[in-house]
Amino acid sequence: MDAEDNYVFPGFIDTHTHLELPKRLGFSKDTNDFETETMAALAGGTTTIFDFVLPEKNESLIDALNRKVKYYEGTANCKYQFHVVLTEVKDNLYEQLKQLKRKGIKGIKIYTTYDKRLTNEEIIKVMNYCSKLDLVVLVHCEDNAIIEYCKNKHNYNFKRPAKAEENAVYTIANYALITKCITYFCNISCSKSVEIIKRIKQKGGKVYLETCPHYLILNSSKYLKSSLKEGTKFLVSPPLREEKDNKALIEACLDGTVDLISTDHCAYLFEEHKKKYYYDISKAAEGIPGIQLRPSLIYTILVKERGFSVENFVKLLSYNPSRIFSVYDRGYIREGATADIVIWEDKKFKVNIEDLHEGTDYSPYEGMELVGKAKYVL
Ligand SMILES: [Zn+2]
């Protein structure tokens, strides 16, 4: 194999994907399946993904993990690991977390909104336990009281306003300082959150900031079309924000405040799960795909357009994710490491849905001119 004139990168790691969720929510039988989406990941240069274990009501965390491991056995095209979602706090939680740790789990995910949200009292308890066990708590931050108050607003962006994220990030950031818990802010979408997290980092908080390609590249103008039919392609939580937020997040990548960029990949069918509910978007599926294009999107916007070094590109997409979740055999190229290698071509291409392996009928990036793609993945 000839890698001449191409970059050789360690395989990329996506720490935030929801490959089971559309089926679980009753939306879809045929999309977003583990086999197709891990193939799409690999085609784009991502060799490891982290998906989520979502326990059933009254199912123990260990049983949920075992169920998931069994369910996916033999179906993946790339390497995969799991984070476990915590939807309730039971008396034996500390013991359950210890068991998960023994099984190799490093990340515990919690929500401050949706039915699966925990109360603030429960959250601080979880963060205290995880701090003692050296586990990472991943938090989806949106203040549920604000979301509830705004739920009847017409525009999607007003239904889930930036203030909701800002409020929850502020609360969780202070909990992180108090409990000394390693805290991972998921899918950060707005400039105010960046400011808060930056301040907490300066105060010595063990916190990480994750954002996603769509928050760097797309904004809420997508929701303002006279017809929202097309706009439903871009429904995601938290929603796309303003251009100033795109800019603030890109700056935060350049100055090192952003630790990693994952996809929050959740692929629905545009025709079947989104477009037909445009008249009442509370029924439309929220979530967008990106598992294949993430490396190309980030390479284009940061390396080609903003002069970001390829070393820092690898840090955001591979090295930092491996460090945060203690995947010590990946994230770099060196003797003794797992040989997940991407031969990367600095080549222009136009996003065409036909070229994507993602199990859906659209891409939010369709028609975009990008630079950089995986030529070979080993
Ligand atoms: Zn997510």
UniProtKB/TrEMBL annotation:
InterPro entries for this protein: Amidohydro-rel (IPR006680), Metal-dep_hydrolase_composite (IPR011059), Metal_Hydrolase (IPR032466), Metallo-dep_Hydrolases_sf (IPR050378)
Highest taxon, organism lineage: Bacteria
Domain Amidohydrolase-related intervals: 7-347
Cofactor(s), by name: Zn(2+)
One Pfam family matching this protein: Amidohydro_1
Gene3D superfamilies documented for this protein: Metal-dependent hydrolases
Protein name: Amidohydrolase family protein
